[in-house]
């Protein structure tokens, strides 16, 4: 067996496709909201694997579910169903508007299924000409060719040849632009109920209301991409529940498995009937191992005290970030909801979000960015108050090195 120190960062450049530029550190173990690297240096984790590790690292409920299922049954294929998949699907319908569930492996795949369902429904019910998908600038919906085209960041979708057609991008939070453009040829609007990669941008109540009303007026479906906002991240089980409107289709992934890859598309019985046998599929989607872990995650997150705890922790983060800002004057605004928080840098600090990330890493703190000007925090939903305070102290120290 290879000793741990024989694996190093240089090997990444030798053997990995260069899509990423990872940090020098290689984490080897984690517990709760702490991680240790190969040199046994400790880090507090305010990144959560980009809003994935919702119960932190090695949560006992997840370890138990994984171990028990790992000793029973890993994979079957969709020629048969399995108990964990059925239990998880039932629980997801109980915590949301949904009546039907389709399992996939990732957020992109859940979004792919959502978009294909919307197009299939429109073709079946209204005819082929009703095919336009409206999405929003700076949105992010995944990296498959369809989802990256629907995402509103051309840098991610350009350079791969002809794109899937009939996709329109409008400004987020602009009711007038949407009202002026939408028509009876629009099949669906796809949106994040809080833009994540685009800079942690919350929708205005007027915008959310208008989106739902305009969809209804033009017989278009509303797809909520809750890959980053779902599973308790905003303090509701799903973010739509705090916005006063209900989508027709919802995608969920990231924290659904708490670190184990799984995604799901949720919808109504009426819409689901357009996905007949053979219309869509997934080799691993709904496999027993992933579903058993996700079921344990949902059980913990759905508890009222977990969801209430998210809002308490948000208050601690906001308070701590405001204190840091009073000292160094680098944030223009602290935005977001629940534990999806963005600290937007002011004019003097433009383009320096990554500098903050790197400096934080040196002080033993893992944070994220959302673009060049927003420092992003997506920690565990059950991170302790002590870990929050220690992490904020490390962030303070990191920023002091940049001033």
From TrEMBL:
Q: Where in the cell is it found?
A: Cytoplasm
Q: N6-(pyridoxal phosphate)lysine is carried by which residues?
A: 254
The annotated subunit structure for this chain is: Homodimer.
Query: What taxonomic lineage is listed for the species of origin?
Result: Bacteria, Pseudomonadati, Pseudomonadota, Gammaproteobacteria, Vibrionales
**Catalytic activity, EC:** 2.6.1.11
What organism, scientifically named, is this protein from?
Answer: Vibrio ulleungensis
Binding of pyridoxal 5'-phosphate: at which residues? 107-108, 140, 225-228, 283
Reactions catalysed, semicolon-separated, are:
N(2)-acetyl-L-ornithine + 2-oxoglutarate = N-acetyl-L-glutamate 5-semialdehyde + L-glutamate
Q: Which GO terms describe its molecular function?
A: transaminase activity
What family classification does the UniProt entry report for this protein? Belongs to the class-III pyridoxal-phosphate-dependent aminotransferase family. ArgD subfamily.
Q: What is this protein called?
A: Acetylornithine aminotransferase
Q: What class of enzyme is it?
A: transferase
| The entry's keywords | Amino-acid biosynthesis, Aminotransferase, Arginine biosynthesis, Cytoplasm, Pyridoxal phosphate, Transferase
Gene designation per UniProt: argD
Asked if the record carries the keyword Iron, the reply is: no
Asked if the record carries the keyword Cytoplasm, the reply is yes
HAMAP family per the UniProt record, alphabetical? ArgD_aminotrans_3 (MF_01107)
PANTHER family to which the protein is assigned, alphabetical: AMINOTRANSFERASE CLASS III, SUCCINYLORNITHINE TRANSAMINASE
Tell me more from the record. Answer: May also have succinyldiaminopimelate aminotransferase activity, thus carrying out the corresponding step in lysine biosynthesis.
